[in-house]
Amino acid sequence: MSRRRTVSMLTLKAWRDTLVHKGQFVSLILLVALGIMSYVTFQNGYYDLSGSLDSTYRRLALPDFAVRVERAPLAAARQVASLPGVAAARVRRISDVGLDLAEGRQATARIISIGDGSSGGVGRPAVIEGRLPVPGAAGEAMLDPKFSGETGLGVGDRIDLRIGGERETVRVVGIGADPEYLYALRTQGDLPSPGEFAVVLVSDREAERLFGTAAGNDVAVRVTPGARIASVIDDVEHELRPYAVLETRERTEMPSYEALQSEVDQNRVMAQTMPALVLLISSMSLFIALSRLVTAQRGEIGLAKALGYTDAQILGHYLSFGLIIAGGGSIIGIALGLLGARGVASSYVSILGIPYLESGFYLDVVAVAVLLAVGACSAAAIVPAWSSARLAPAIAMHSDPNKSLAGGRVPLAEKLLSPVLPRSFTFRIPLRNVFRARRRSLYTVLGIAFAMVLSVMTVSMFDSMDYLLDTAFTKTERWDVSAFFDVPQGSARLAEIRGIDGVNRVQPALVIPATLERNGIEEDLVLTAMAPGADFHGFDPMPGSDPQSALAAGDLVIAAGTATALGVGPGAVVYVDTPFLDDPVTMRVGAVAKEMLGTPAFVSFDAASQLTGSAVTEHNAFYLDVEPTLATRIQDEIFDMPGAATVQVKAGLIERLKSLLELFNVFGSVMLAFGFAMAFVVIYTTFTANVNERTREIATMRVIGEDNPRLTVMVTLENLLIALAALPLGVWLGVLATQAIFARFSTDAYSLEAYIYPSSVAQVCGLMLLVLLVSETPPVRRIFRLDLAEATKVME
User: Fold this and answer.
1) Which among 291, 311, 497, 782 is placed 20 to 30 Å from 685, CA to CA?
2) Residue 572 three-state SS
3) Positive/negative CA dihedral, 728, 732, 733, 735
4) pTM across the whole model
5) Dihedral sign, CA of 703, 705, 707, 710?
6) Are strands 197-202 and 158-163 parallel, antiparallel or unpaired?
């Protein structure tokens, strides 16, 4: 027989095997396609989102850093712009004021002056609708698109601002975004507050009219390419020293920039994690299917080798199945992934407020997708292919005698359970099959467990978000209404707030920016000075920490994330730098606490006096316990007070955050459906392999008189017994996968913990059993259609 003839016969056999097992092969191709689709979708989406952001920042001249000062003339921009390494500079006014909405609701407006619109080459607004405010016109403003979409306010509408206790009305002439607030957030690490925070852009002349001064309090700077930004910052701060420098924030410390970069990073994590998970499940299923195919074709392999086929040809024959699956999965997955990527990028750009979309075709993504498919399928196929090539012809052509010996023993489990088991073989044979065919049972357990991973992971993400909200706003944030003022308020303001009808208790605090430093490592954070006995913030202390005692002793209480970054624990000494002092102060870390939202730090009022240079007698934050039915009215009254910048009702904030999670819920629902669909495919493939492997056994039972209903019950009982072992393993693997993803998602803004409710475990397991019963239907129907004469033949 010629080599060419041999190869062609093997090719024909591969084609025929594919047709005979077409259901399994189609399922495996779809599994690989899902993995490749997820890779292309997320990787292309990541590139598009990252490119769109970079393009937007270039076109709108995002500042490289900004310096907060007490008061600086607009002309100070020329002084800064003349410094070496400075490409452009602009003095602007940034102030938070109250904003009245319909139906008595309140919001916070951040007023930002934008000069004449050209902005001197730094911080140019993106006009989405309407126009920029005319520099000389009074009462004109531009509203950010996110707040406009949340509230329905648009071009031509009028908004009422509360400034210094007075109401000022301005007309919206345009919808547009400042590059520093593409994703409008109050502070770094803040959670989005739908309908609660607006960015309002006005001309310098309008800012002067609203606030009664032509001076600014913030200097935006863009550096020349190649300049050392640290040196430029030092020079700018020195130049602005006469205007009382309060803080400097680089791009990475800008709230919007940090949040958007976090989204980009999360897209990269998803692009790395989800495809890997799906391809791992696909590889496991392919490995199981091909291993069973080799076992089922022992006789054919032996005959082929006896006829002169070489080990290499047999190896290549079974590897070709993996390549067929990789090729089919790549074509389908890449096509669907390219379509999905554009949709993902468009959705993110719309949701995050990025005004310009940059999308493209990335050849390296397609190339890596093909390599991933080929690599995953080849890795899954190599072991069973190698096993087939090593079989000796004489051994392969006869059945394994060890199986007969093992099959004759009664398993230990049946002996132990014999007193409670029914005597009918309908119940005993499934138990025997589970323990006699240990490899087959193990493969089935692993198949079901891996099929559950994606579904459990999605449900765990849902539960983790619920747990985060419950913990953050019930156990940690223990106030009903919070109020923040742009300047510290004295005892008269505290008494006024206490006197509002419906206020049961007020706990004052002083919130200041600070930098903690240890061994050259710095962490910027928000430091809250409070009474040692205050309970508006609940602590979840790390082992060995007592936050209340630490505050009473005058020590710092810091978040676990900060402690890890600085490499410190209770008892360590750190340097604390604030805008109020020229030199940092040394303080002792008294306790470390877990914080799910942000990385705050806390200190007592007495200890805070070291950081402010004077005794703390004024406060800029107030936390209220109020009558729930009066919370909104109390919010309105505080907003009317001069200097009130942000007033939040916790109950309303929770509802708005839940509505904000609607997109996550939609995405999660799609992922959950995806997970159960993949579970069906995996379990179907596994059960089909079970039936194929037991064709002669089942046919023989039918020949000796076993009817179809009893056979169906036996097969189902066997599958359920295996599922009982697989379900706990699948839940455990799913939670582990969630923990791994959350570990990569966690940032300074939030720290996610994988959590799953027992009720969710029960629901997932119940649905998975339903999937199991549905997916076993096609192979069980195949039992009823067996050709008994053909199926009971024995090859010798």
Assistant:
1) 311
2) coil
3) positive
4) 0.66
5) negative
6) unpaired
Task: State CA 653 to chain mean position distance.
Answer: 21
Is residue 219 included in any domain, yes or no? yes
Whether 98 and 167 map to the same domain: the answer is yes
Q: Are residues 90 and 158 in the same domain?
A: yes
Q: Cα-Cα-Cα-Cα dihedral of 527, 531, 532, 538, to 10°? A: -70
In the chain, DSSP finds a helix count (H) and a strand count (E) of 27, 21
Half-sphere exposure of 746 (CA within 13 A, CB side): 19
- Residues 115, 161, single domain; the answer is yes
Q: With CA atoms as reference, report the closest residue to 102 among 159, 166, 140.
A: 159
Residue 84 sits in the same domain as residue 204: yes
Structural domain of residue 129, as residue ranges?
64-256
The token duo for 299 is 């006789």
Polymer length of the chain:
796
| Structure token digits, residue 371 | 């390599």
Instruction: Let me know whether 521 and 654 are in one domain.
Output: no
- Contact (Cβ atoms closer than 8 angstroms) between residue 131 and residue 65: no
**3 state SS of 74:** coil
Binned average pLDDT, 10 residues per bin, the chain of 796 residues: 52 68 75 82 84 87 92 90 92 89 80 72 88 88 89 90 84 91 76 78 90 89 91 93 89 84 77 75 72 66 69 75 84 87 75 77 87 81 71 58 50 66 71 75 80 84 83 86 90 93 94 90 89 90 89 92 89 90 90 85 92 88 93 86 84 72 66 75 72 70 74 81 88 87 67 83 88 79 68 51
DSSP 363-431: HHHHHHHHHHHHHHHHHHHHHHHHHHHH--HHHHTS--HHHHHHHTSPPHHHHHHTTTS-SSHHHHHHH
Alpha-carbon span 132 to 116, nearest angstrom: 9
